[in-house]
């Protein structure tokens, strides 16, 4: 493997700082402010940012490097969640064994599906993965009810054996990391601001940093170069006598292990698993995350995951009462008109806003949010160079002929 370059090291440090300071960065507005609605620095949402960031990072290893578009990755997410909850029920509430089993189950399930699906490419591959995911969803709801608990979902109970933990009495036990409660939260007050430091979030954030580091290593490795070659021209590689299937299958399995890891972390955050995590909409969501952030880039999937989860959790909670509070100082007729105008784009209609933004990004920024950042950096860099170049300043002051 190639060693880390300077840009990779800087990128990893930036991501680590964002994870560390997220409880502060995501709470820019005072707690009593009407704009506190847009704060996202509370544990549940921050955990979803990093967990679905892991999910998208893994999907990007398959789609971003090989160009194989899977519509069935939610199957591995759900399988990882079920495996983790079973570990909590049978063994211990410690999250480490649950996460390890979730990764293993996700990888094995991906190897099985990938072995069959990768016999085809293009749209046929996508349809096969979608079919497998929907079959998994249907099985979890019906045939595999003894393992998945069907529509109710798999949950903890006081009668669970948990052979390495003392029997629970009174209330259900909580997940922990060698005794550290994953729900443990320290609240820091700084004037009108409130910041929550949660143990589960920082554990998930640390795992995401490791997953991000591994993705950089994969991208910069000879294996990653082979995957890029598959995306560039798989047919030409086949003409050379080189079989591409072992490489694509390995990428598919690694991607499935990332999805299983994300599913295990979701169960560690909230120890339950349901078949809805295997539904096709969950698979489509990770596709949107990756494309929106920038497929094939390193940090793009993380940005896309945060973007979508922010809209899902923040904009979906803006209802008519909140809108009337915002526009309450205006005349009644204007207030009602603005509420009527904004209403379809928030609350239950947040999907419409997200869809419009997704269209704008695809049309004007085909490379996703990462391309937008590069363009902004390029414009700022050109202005700075012109400001520091005396000849450029003099030329700009000369009248045109």
TrEMBL record:
Provide the taxonomic classification: Bacteria, Pseudomonadati, Pseudomonadota, Alphaproteobacteria, Rhodobacterales
Q: Which domain of life is it from?
A: Bacteria
Which cellular component terms (GO) are annotated to the entry? plasma membrane
Where do the TM regions start and end? 45-63, 94-116, 123-144, 199-219, 246-266, 286-311, 323-346, 352-370
A Pfam family annotated for this chain is BPD_transp_2
UniProt-recorded Gene Ontology molecular function terms: branched-chain amino acid transmembrane transporter activity
Compartmental location: Cell membrane
Which keywords accompany this UniProt record?
Cell membrane, Membrane, Transmembrane, Transmembrane helix
Instruction: Report what the protein is called.
Output: Branched-chain amino acid ABC transporter permease
What species is this protein from? Mesobaculum littorinae
Q: How does it sit in the membrane?
A: Multi-pass membrane protein
Q: Which InterPro entries match?
A: ABC_transp_permease, LivM-like
